[in-house]
Structures are given as C-alpha cells and as structure tokens.
C-alpha cells in the first residue's frame, strides 16, 4: 500500500489524463486541487474557481499573495493572463449552464447509479454543499477522485446512504485502485492499478463491478 | 452572389462546434458565414442597429441563407444590419420585442409570410439568460393578464401570479465586441452591450465580431464582460 | 385649443412636476421624452434608458454624436457624469425589480381600472411592446402622458378594448385637459386645465370622472 | 461596548430609507450601524472573508445587535468578519451555502441555538438576484432528488424537473466596493465581487463599505459594476 501522499498524487495524476486541451475545469478543495500539478505542458486547461474567476493559476510565491485573489477554499492563488473575474451569479451561469467541461471532487459515498453524497453526515459533520450541488448538476463530466475506502469502510456503494448531493450525475470514479465508469448497466472497471487484483478491488467495493474484456492497467 | 469559400481543414470540425478550445479562434467572415446554414436559429446582438455585427450580417445577406429563425431585440431599420435579412426575406420566424422601426417586418407578418413571436424586452433578455444559465425558465410578472400569457403556464408564488417563460437558445449567436482578446474575452462599449452577453451563453456556436482584437493579457480581468470560454470564433469587424 | 406642440409641452411640463429629487425615471419615446426639458435645475433626475444605461443626458450637439450612445428609440444621446452602462438583463433587473421610481409613457387606451393598451392594434399596427410591459409592471409610479382624445375618439375608457400592455398598473393620466388619478373607486380628476370646464373633460372621457371637492387648477 | 451615537438629523429619515436620493450618501460607520437593529435580516457580501465589509461588521459586533437573520455565502472563520457575529451569538437564523470553516456555526446548529438553512451556492446567488429583479423565483435543476428539495414545489418544463426556489430579500445589505464614487457607483476588485452585486439589488437599505471613495465622473461608465441607484449609503472602509 502506498503512503497517503503518494496515493493522492497517483489519483490526481490519473485524473489529469481525463482533461483535454481547452477544457474548462473546476477542481474541488483537497485532493482534486492536486490535479493541476499534473496537467501536461502541451495542453491548456482553464480552471474555474466558483467564488468568481476563470484562469486560476498556481499558488503565489511567498510574499506575493494578493488578499483579493483567493480560491473557493479561501487560499491565496493567482490568475493567469486571459483570466476573468465575475460575480457569483455569473459564476453559476457558467457552472449550472453546462459551460464547465469537467468537475473533479471528492465523495463520502458514491453509488453504481452515479448518485453522490459529499456534503453532510447528519448530526455529525454538516459543512454545507457550497457550490458542489450546482457543479455536479451542471458540469458536462463529473469525476469523483478519492481514496477507494475510508478506514476500511466501503465508499463505493450499491446505494448511497447519506443525504445526496445529486442524483445520477457521476461519470467516473478514480481511486488508487482503478478507474470506474458509471454506465446504464452499472459500474464498469475500466482500468486497474496493477498492485491490486480484480478481487481486491471488488472486495473494497460494495457495488458489483462489471469487468470488461478490455480491462486495462491504470496509466497514472 | 459572392462565391462561397470552403471552410479550410484547419478549422475545428463540425462535430466539436459546441466545444470552445484554445485553438486559434480568429477566422475570416467567409469562414463564419459558412457555418451558418438554411433553417438555423440565429441570435444577433444589437438594439436598433446599435450595433449589429454588420460585417457578418452583410455576408449572410450576400450568401442568402434562408429560413432563418432570427432572435434579436428588434429588426433594426430596413437598410441597417439585420433589417436587411428581413427585407431580403431570409427570415422564416422572428422572436423579438419590437418591430416598429422596420415596416417590412410588419408587412411580411400581416401577409402571413413571416411568423413573429413578440416577447417583452425584459423577458427576452431573461429567457436567453436562463438558457445560458441552465435554468428551467423564468417566473415573471410581466405579461400577466395580456395576450402574451396566452397558452403559457402561470405559477403562484406567495400569493402573486407569475408567468412561466421558457429558456431560449439558438444554434448560432452572432455578437459584437469592442475589444476582444485572442482567447475571445470580450469588453463591450457603451450602449452596444445590450443582448450580447446573454446571447454569448446560449448558443451552440458563438461568433463575435470585434471592433478591435488585442493580445491575451491586454484586458484587465476585472474589465472583461464576457469570458472567452463562451466564444468559439472571432471575426475582425469593419465599418459599415 | 392649443397648437399641437404647445399641447405636448404643456403636458410634459406638468408631468415634470411629478418627479422628485433623486428619482430614477424612464421616459418613453415621443411626448414623454419632452419631460426632460422641464426638470427644474435644483433637482436631479436619473434617466434610465432601457437599452442599457442610467444617467442619460441631453441630445448631443451636431457633429458630436457617438454612434455607440443612442437611446431606446435609436436616437443619439449623451451620458452624464456618474452614468453607467449595462446589459439588457441588468437593465430589466432595474426595471422589473422596482428600481425605477417613475415611468412615463403614451397610450392608445387607458381605463378607469388602470389598465393600459399601447402596443398593438390587431391587423393594423403591431410595433411590439419593446420594454413597455416590463416598465409598467415594475415601475413604482406609472404616468400616462398623452392627448386626451385621438381625432375626437375617447382614449380614456371604462374598459380598454385593445390588447392590454398590463393590468391595473397606471397611477396617473396627464393630458392637456387635466390630471387624473386611478384609485380603487375609479378615476379622480385631481387637476383641470382652466381652459376647459368639468363638463368638457367628462365629455372627452368615456370613464366617469370622480370630481373631488379640492379639484385644483392644473399648474403646468 | 461602545456608546451608541444617535443618528444625526442630517440623515434621511426612517420613512424614506428605501429610496435612494442624490443627497450626500457618505456616512460614518456609527451612522451605518445605527440603522441596523435587533431582529433585522442582513445580507453581507464576501466569500470566506474575501472580503466582508470588516469595518461595519466589527461595529455590529461591538454594538451587539441581536437576533439577526444573516444571509451570506458562508460564516467565514471564527476570528474573521461575519464569523465573529456567529461566535458572539448575534445570529438567530443563518441562510448560507457553506459553514465548514467556522466550527462555531456547526456547534450552535447542533445545539439547537442557531437555525441554519443551507442553500446551494448557485441557488443562493440566483435567489437574491431574483428578488432584486422582480422575478417570482428561479427554476433550477440543482437539488432535485436531495433533501434540499424537501417541502418545495417542483415544476416540469419540457420534460425536465426543476425546483422552484423563492426570491430572497433582506432589510439591509452590507456590501464592499473597491472604488465607489459619491453617487454610490461601485467598481469591485478581483475575487471580492462575489455576492455583492446581487445583494445591492435586494435589500431595503444598501450600505457599501468602500476601499476608496472617488469623485463622480472618475469611473468610466463601462467600468461601473453596480449602479449608484442601488446604493443608499457609503462608508469609507479601513483595514482589518
């Protein structure tokens, strides 16, 4: 088993391969943010930050922070040339209106029908949905990027138990074990980390995985 | 009629028109009109000719594209901008708020040659915005109790009645920008802004006719009014 | 009877008295546009032009026209210091949202319940409603400014016959004969042009006028 | 607690708070907080403290206004901006999209001391805009099939379901501006724009805290993002 940071970067690296030249992409806080470190130099990705801009750049150098340029997690960031600031209504015109090509975010639970739960554990942790409900409802492609399990518990379920973020919206689940696609027939394991067997992945997954003939090794 | 120039292979293929890439967005006016074919729905920015994308519209008139569904605030004047598309009988259906400045529009409507849907101006702007914003329509008090409400659903919210007006999209939006950078980021000027920002969000192909094209980075990120992600193509405008 | 232009200016002058310091006002094309000529110097009125700006100024001098600054009638105009340009959606946020204090516009017909018809004569003249339906629905005060009759025909009716612009929205009707207020009880003649008798005004009006004890002479 | 200063007679009387006049809009922070009383609903601009109107919010904390209904994107951090209003238990009801960065919010909610309505961020922005725009609400696909839809009407438009979310207004909006002219015309800077433009349209009293106050005419009419007609009062901001 890889160390925590290695796992995160492994997942982020694989997610980055899903991004195409010119894509408008919204990366959630945490692991998804790492994806920006793995975008190939020969393509251009336009990062959307739901608090109000397009063209988000890398974190600023120490001492060069601009308090008026923060990401949706409240951290200092920068804006690339060609970037644009706008208000929250316009930000969600972009998001809800289907103008974000890919949104990458974490999950507490995700199920074989593409249902997603990532905003509350009743009575325990209720951070709120922020922009997540709009993002997964509006984005053309929804990628869940996360650890395959949480402290040994299943996160990829037959049916989500926690309050949903949205219904039938997830397209891909990318974990340290593999890449799964949500299809009308169920969850298809498209790629597998060669460190694991198909049985390992199935045991770590409550939903029944469909194993296609052309199952590939993950290329992260 | 001018000969139609075949779209060069360098251009993005048909299948990906809806996706805005960071490829070179600058195209010629010929390339632009070659994407616009008979029977398409076309939104055109401007308010009584202030200002339509004159260069592209004139090329559409020249090309003679037919059976257009035209979505615009008005039909300008007979000799100006989209007014010519009406005079030239290229429009099959018109969705607009005002047609009084172009008598030919009323003539064709009364003769049964042109199907006209009149929409209150605020409703028109908001319906286009709703389409771009992924909303299911708008709930407006405007038009309640008038023939504008005919055949439409009314919804009561907290004791007040609103008309449900549906989102409005088009195949192509042709808009104008004063300063446009090479990524398609647009800054409008003065009263020419009007419907352009909403139209940019609500069409499969968005073409901006620019007064001036500038390098990426020349526009302050606070000054850009339409982000380039909405814009597929840029045509350098001219003077009419 | 006054000459046409005198009548127009007489009406416009009286309308101007309804405007208060700081009011946001939208003036329709034609007669209502003249109102701006009679705004006292000691108050500031902010004119809204529905095609996309606030702070509309006077017509430009010849040779100083800016083709990008036209009013909602397509005529050259100017913008005062402190003026603001915006798009059509924002323009109607202002209008529909109740942020215009007074809208002044003409009518084909208006009735004692405040119904207004000013956008079409079926089969004859159909200019379209433009921004009028939103303006009368959203503005805090709606003033109809027009000639009392049209070629001898009543325009102030018991009930409008033409397709309506909006229902129960008109607050005041100002003509060359007087100032009428639409109230729950009906049409009250508040002020009268001393050139006319009450009977003259009633004959020119299909709706029954309520004559209050404190009927005043019009101050135009 | 600082002594409350009586609003001077020069200020617009209570009865006309909703009307924006061209009188002098510049007021002191004391004048501003004196308009804000126990039990009012207050919208506050900002996104995770970037940036709340710190000067006015700090004065509200000092004044100890209670039983507020607070409408904001989030509750910032415990020590920053509106986060303090939560920590200080001045808020009775909260309408926000995210509360995860201020643990005190969750604690008070779980203890039953604070009524929290969580609203998807895009829905929050659009509900406020709808209130300012005179619309009867919005029809959004966001929240369909989740507990956000509980108790709300769904409307089908062309075969797709949308949630009807109602307009959201407040008694007072406290917003921030980077450059504000003396008529209240506002230009925002960078990521501080967020909810401010919508909030400016949807409250009875709108107070802007300005980084910088400039003369009328200094801002290009194309550069103003919120027209001064929406703004009742201007307070010169400071640094926190």
UniProtKB/TrEMBL annotation, chains A, C:
Pfam families from the UniProt entry: CoA_trans
Enzyme class: transferase
Top-level taxon: Bacteria
Enzyme Commission number(s): 2.8.3.8, 2.8.3.9
UniProt key word Cytoplasm: no
GO molecular function: acetate CoA-transferase activity; butyrate-acetoacetate CoA-transferase activity
Entry keywords, A to Z: Transferase
Recorded coiled-coil stretches: none
Family assignment from sequence similarity: Belongs to the 3-oxoacid CoA-transferase subunit B family.
The protein's name in its UniProt record: Acetate CoA/acetoacetate CoA-transferase beta subunit
Automatic annotation (TrEMBL), chains B, D:
Gene3D superfamilies (alphabetical): Glutaconate Coenzyme A-transferase
Keyword Transferase included in the entry's annotation: yes
Protein source organism: Sedimentibacter acidaminivorans
Keywords: Transferase
Protein name: Acetate CoA/acetoacetate CoA-transferase alpha subunit
UniProt xrefs under NCBIfam families: pcaI_scoA_fam (TIGR02429), PRK09920.1 (NF007394)
Pfam families: CoA_trans (PF01144)
SUPFAM superfamilies found in the cross-reference section: NagB/RpiA/CoA transferase-like (SSF100950)
Gene Ontology MF: a single term: acetate CoA-transferase activity
Enzyme Commission identifier(s): 2.8.3.8, 2.8.3.9
InterPro entries in UniProt: 3-oxoacid_CoA-transf_A (IPR012792), CoA_trans_fam_I (IPR004165), NagB/RpiA_transferase-like (IPR037171)
């Amino acid at each position: 088993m890889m160390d925590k940071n290695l796992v995160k970067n492994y997942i982020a690296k694989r997610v980055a391969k899903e991004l195409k030249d010119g894509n408008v992409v919204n990366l959630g806080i945490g692991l998804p943010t790492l994806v920006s470190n793995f975008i190939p130099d020969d393509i251009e990705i336009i990062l959307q930050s739901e608090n109000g801009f397009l063209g988000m750049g890398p974190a600023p150098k120490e001492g060069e922070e601009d308090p008026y340029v923060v990401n949706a997690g409240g951290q200092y960031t920068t804006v690339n040339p060609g970037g644009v600031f706008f208000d929250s209504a316009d930000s969600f015109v972009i998001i809800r209106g289907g103008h974000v090509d890919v949104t990458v975010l974490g999950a507490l639970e995700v199920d074989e029908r593409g249902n997603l739960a990532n905003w509350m554990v009743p009575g325990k942790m209720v951070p709120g949905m922020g922009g997540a409900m709009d993002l997964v409802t509006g984005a053309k492609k929804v990628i869940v990027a996360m650890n395959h399990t949480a402290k040994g518990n299943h996160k990829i379920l037959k049916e989500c138990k926690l309050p949903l973020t949205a219904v039938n919206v997830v397209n891909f689940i990318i974990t340290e074990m593999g890449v799964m696609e949500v299809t009308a027939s169920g969850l298809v394991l498209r790629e597998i980390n060669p460190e694991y067997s198909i049985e390992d992945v199935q045991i770590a997954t409550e939903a029944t995985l469909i194993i296609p003939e052309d199952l590939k090794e993950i290329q992260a | 009629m001018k000969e139609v120039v075949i779209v060069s292979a360098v251009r993005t293929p048909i299948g990906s028109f809806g996706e805005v890439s960071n490829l070179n967005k600058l195209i010629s006016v010929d390339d632009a009109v070659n994407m616009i074919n008979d029977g398409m729905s076309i939104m055109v920015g401007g308010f009584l000719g202030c200002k339509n994308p004159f260069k592209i519209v004139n090329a559409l008139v020249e090309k003679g594209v037919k059976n257009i569904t035209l979505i615009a605030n008005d039909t300008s004047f007979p000799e100006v901008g989209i007014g010519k598309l009406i005079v030239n009988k290229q429009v099959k259906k018109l969705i607009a708020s005002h047609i009084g400045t172009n008598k030919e529009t009323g003539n064709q409507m009364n003769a049964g040659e042109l199907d006209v849907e009149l929409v209150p101006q605020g409703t028109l702007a908001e319906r286009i915005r709703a389409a771009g914003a992924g909303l299911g329509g708008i709930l407006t008090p405007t038009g309640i109790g008038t023939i504008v409400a005919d055949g439409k659903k009314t919804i009561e919210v907290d004791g007040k009645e609103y008309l449900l007006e549906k989102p409005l999209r088009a195949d192509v939006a042709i808009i104008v920008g004063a300063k446009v950078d090479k990524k398609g980021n647009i800054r409008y000027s003065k009263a020419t802004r009007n419907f352009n920002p909403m139209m940019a969000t609500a069409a499969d192909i968005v073409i901006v006719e620019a007064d001036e094209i500038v390098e990426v980075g020349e526009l302050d990120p606070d000054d850009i009014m339409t982000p380039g992600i909405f814009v597929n193509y840029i045509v350098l405008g001219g003077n009419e």
